[in-house]
Design brief:
This protein is of the alpha/beta class. It is built from 4 helices and 6 strands. Helix content is 38%, strand content 27%. Strands 1, 2, 3, 4, 5 and 6 form a 6-stranded mixed sheet that branches. The longest helix is centred in the middle third of the chain and has 16 residues.
Length: 128
C-alpha cells in the first residue's frame, strides 16, 4: 500500500518571460490539492500564464489532484496562457489517459521538452 503524505511543495523557476516551471513534490490528494491549485493560480496571477508542472516527484494523485490540474488548466487558458505537464509518473499517466485529460493537456517526457515546446527552442540537456 502507498504511504500518502499530507504535504506538498512547489518549487518555481522562470526559464523565460511569462513562463514558469513548477516542480510538484509530494502527493496530490484531497488534503494537498488545494495547495497545488492555489500555488499554481498565484504563479499565473504573477504574470506567468504559461505554466509547466514537473510531476516527476509526485508519488500519488487522486481525483482531487486531477480536478486541481484541470482547474489550473482553465485558469491558465483564461489568462491567455497554457498548462503543460512534464515527467508524469506512470500511475498518473494512466489516470490522465483513462479520463481523457491527456488529450487536453500537452504531456512531455521531460521538463526540457516541455519548456522547448513553449519557447520554440531546442531542448537543452534532457532532465527528468
Amino acid at each position: 500500500m502507498t504511504d500518502v503524505t499530507h504535504t506538498l511543495h512547489l518549487t518555481v523557476q522562470h526559464p523565460h518571460p511569462g513562463l514558469a516551471l513548477a516542480t510538484v513534490v509530494g502527493d496530490v490528494d484531497v488534503h494537498t490539492a488545494p495547495t497545488l491549485r492555489s500555488g499554481a493560480l498565484e504563479i499565473i496571477q504573477q504574470g506567468h500564464p504559461r505554466l509547466v508542472l514537473d510531476l516527476a516527484p509526485v508519488g500519488f494523485c487522486d481525483s482531487a489532484g486531477l480536478s486541481a490540474i484541470i482547474g489550473i488548466w482553465h485558469a491558465a487558458r483564461e489568462a491567455g496562457g497554457s498548462l503543460s505537464l512534464a515527467a508524469v509518473p506512470d500511475r498518473l499517466m494512466r489516470m490522465l489517459s483513462m479520463t481523457g485529460v491527456d488529450s487536453l493537456l500537452p504531456v512531455h517526457a521531460t521538463t526540457a521538452d516541455a519548456v522547448a515546446a513553449l519557447t520554440d527552442s531546442p531542448p537543452a540537456s534532457a532532465n527528468r
